[in-house]
Amino acid sequence: MTPTATGTSPFTPSPGAAPLHRMVAAQAGMELRVMLRNGEQLLLTMVIPVLLLVGFSTTGVLDLGSGPRVDFLTPGVLALAVLSTAFTGQAIGTGFERRYGVLKRLGATPLSRFGLLAAKTLAVLAVQALQFLVIGVTAVLLGWRPEAGPAGIAYCLLLVLLGTAAFSSLALLMAGTLRAEATLAAANLVYVVLLGLGGVVFATDRFPEAVQPLLQALPVTALAEGMRAVLADGAAPALAPVAVLALWTAAGAALAARFFRWE
């Protein structure tokens, strides 16, 4: 083999970590494959939101006001889909990855905590795109006609991105600090509580006035009601839901980066 001008072979190995974006992309692809192969997680992320949408849209079990039921429900169900994928499913999955030593092995690689968070968030966004397609088609078949124009759609996408980042960071915080069994119980409990209190299927103005400021500060409430105001009511985009989700994202990411443990 003919050496180069510097006296080294052109095939000389160059050891070192891959660029961060390549590590994140590879990890995100692996996370996505694991999520799509998990039947229980697909039940949580796909089937339950669609059943809630169809069931409450076609029956009078809940009093949802005078407008079309599907118009009120669809934004809340979309927010629930984000919660179920980015928080509940991810917290449980990551908790058991930590228990079985998967995260310990990842910790021995150059992938940082930030890289792991970014990869899991990208995988969640890919699943959510499929969720939104299924839920959106179902809602349209039920008579949903969103009121938002291009600016409103862009605003809703911003809310979804912020909500996904917030729930992902909170999921990693929970999974990285609690035992797997505790994470399983806590994540499901949070899911049920936020389903009832977070403006998903019940408007928050029906709760006592004293607790409404607390409910409005919840990330799922900001996501659900922010999208509902634009998609169902045709209102102009508001800053408050963006601010709430941005604060949860910043706090969750900082705490996860500080306290997340690989084992």
Keyphrases for this structure?
263 residues, mainly alpha, 71% helix, ABC_2_transport, ABC2_TM_bact-type
Plain-language structure description:
With 263 residues, the protein is mainly α. It has one domain. 71% of the residues lie in helices and 0% in strands. The chain contains 10 helices and no strands. Helix 2 (39-58) runs parallel beside helix 5 (113-141) and helix 3 runs antiparallel to helix 5 (113-141). The chain is globular and about 70 Å long. The model has no long low-confidence stretch (mean pLDDT 85).
Structural class: mainly alpha
Q: Let me know the largest β-sheet.
A: none
| Topology, number of strands | 0
How many structural domains can be distinguished in the coordinates?
1
Contiguous low-pLDDT stretches (5 residues minimum) are none
User: Cα-atom Rg, whole angstroms?
Assistant: 21 Å
Principal-axes geometry comes out as globular
Strand coverage percent? under 5%
The DSSP helix count reads 10
What is the residue-averaged pLDDT? 85
Helix content: over 70%
